[in-house]
């Protein structure tokens, strides 16, 4: 470390076949050196600014020295100065953990709306690629430019006959699915939304999704009902209501080896009651989740 001018050691520990050391200097640099029992040596170099010329020169110099070591495995990718800087200390996060294994950075550039309602936390974040994006309790719900792809998929990819049918949409307060199918001949479409503020926010920031449909909560063949969808289903079962099509736009079916946990319990209850109100030749449509690396799930 001395020939790289890294500076003084702040913390140093040495156990059997394992070394950890933290170096720091007055040029805005912190370096963490760690060894493992299998011989792996890791060196993390941190700076508060990737524009730090000293930092760039040091990283490049270190890269050149490592590549000259006889025992070093030469990387198959070209060298780079540093990893992208993490965006911290802002009023919203740019990052999500996807499938529990991947850190994804979103291209949000501003916070448009932020409110904790009586039922949930609603936020609208603007994305350069997707326009306004609606988050409900930190779960992304829909993007401003998602109308065509999302409504096409959740309405059944054009394979569901809505003519003369009675339709129940669980969720759907953004009117995305209602707008897609309202002119396909349905006798009545009922969307059951949990939070009135979702409707209000959609009208303000998601006209690309709802058009002018939410200017009124009812139309010739549709209605938006503000109620808990699970409770609505239970009442529908008791009163003997029946539907030709039930669309689950409220809860994603999780992907797991076993149907356990709160999310599965909620989904199974929702599914069971949906089947009870669905006619014997009816159609149930839902969205699910997937894993980007199936070996992690099914091995």
Walk me through this protein's architecture.
- This protein is α/β, with parallel strands linked by helices.
- The protein is 25% helix and 35% strand.
- The protein contains eight helices and 16 strands.
- The protein has helices spanning 53-68, 147-154, 176-181, 196-205, 207-210, 229-239, 262-277, 295-298, and strands at residues 8-15, 18-24, 29-35, 41-47, 95-98, 102-105, 108-116, 121-127, 131-136, 139-143, 166-171, 188-193, 218-219, 222-226, 243-253, 278-288.
- Strands 13-14-12-11-15-16 form a six-stranded mixed sheet. A four-stranded antiparallel sheet has the order 1-2-3-4, with no helix packed on it.
- Helix 6 (229-239) runs parallel beside helix 7 (262-277).
- The radius of gyration is 27 Å and the shape is elongated.
- The model has no long low-confidence stretch (mean pLDDT 84).
Content-based structural category = alpha/beta
Please report the number of helical segments. Answer: 8
Can you write the helix and strand succession as a string?
Answer: EEEEHEEEEEEHEHEHHEEHEHEH
Low-confidence stretches: none
Shape: elongated
From the N-terminal CA to the C-terminal CA, the straight-line distance is 43 Å
The share of residues in helices is 25-40%
Strand order of the largest sheet: 13-14-12-11-15-16
How much β-strand is present in the residues?
Answer: 35-45%
The radius of gyration computed from the alpha-carbon positions, rounded to a whole number of angstroms, is: 27 Å
**Main sheet makeup:** 6 strands, mixed
Mean pLDDT: 84
Number of strands: 16
